[in-house]
Design brief:
Strand order of the largest sheet: 1-3-2
Distance between the termini: 44 Å
Largest sheet: 3 strands, antiparallel
Shape: globular
Number of strands: 3
Helix content: 55-70%
Radius of gyration: 25 Å
Order of helices and strands: HHHHHHHEHEEHHHHH
Amino acid sequence: MRFPIVNACLAAIALATLGAAPVGSPAPSLPAATGLNFHQTAAELTASCDASIATAKAAYAKIFAAPADKATFATLQAIETVGADFNDATAVQGGLWELSPDAEVRKASFACSQKVSDYNVEVGSDPRIYAVAQRVTTLGDAPIPAGAKLTEYYVIGGKRAGAGLDPETRKRTTALFQQLNDLELKFAQQLESESTTIEITTAEAKSLSPGFLTTLKKTATGYTVPVDESTYGQFMISESSSATRKRFVQAFANRGGIKNVQRLQDAVAVRDELAHLLGYPSWAAYQLDVKMAKTPERVETLLNTVSEKLLPKAQSEIAALT
């Protein structure tokens, strides 16, 4: 699934490129000619997405046509360039499912996003790329510090993607990572496709800011409030009724419904199997292995220590509030 910052950047670029700005408005921060086409039809989007995958496959094949024992840091640079070009080439096609007003374009974009995610999993677990990174590490010809860090990134990434496993196990982990990506994408799509709202009375709306109220639909008895990330902060900060805030939070937490509950359960099972296949006791251990904490046990120790130190202060504050 794409990181929020990627989609935020796409949204910013889209706003800067979607037609001319009103007379007198500030110049856009990005030029109109970004090289990104946000106006593709569903058919054009699908075609360009498939073409980008085919281009990447051909580029990787050309790199791997050279003898593996001749690989150098320049080989790894070429691999990195192909991956970067591929991500650039599919950024819009794989992100319009969250941005486009056209339902068919959103559908095509979602399919593209799944293809891109699945292909990136294949690339990440490719033993040939992992072997190149290991050879470059042995050669020591990567420039310091950037080149050495890039090499380390590929060694660690390859190991965590299953590139060093036997063929059968690697095939299984690749399929599981692809399944996990699909579950995450569909989870996000379910949230994006819903239009959850709550109804509030005029009395309940009194504490809301006038600016926020202008964005809400007026009803005979009050207002309809959309329940999503864009309204959560404004509503929860300014709504004075605890009962109304509770209704909002419950509606927010229930978005996605039973389908997303099932996806979450499936994702937990997939993560657990992946962790064990990759040599970790749990998904938490797999995630923390490359982070500062390193192990779940160290995290638990830190949290318990902080809790013990803060508990007396929390109890005194609760007593004062009571």
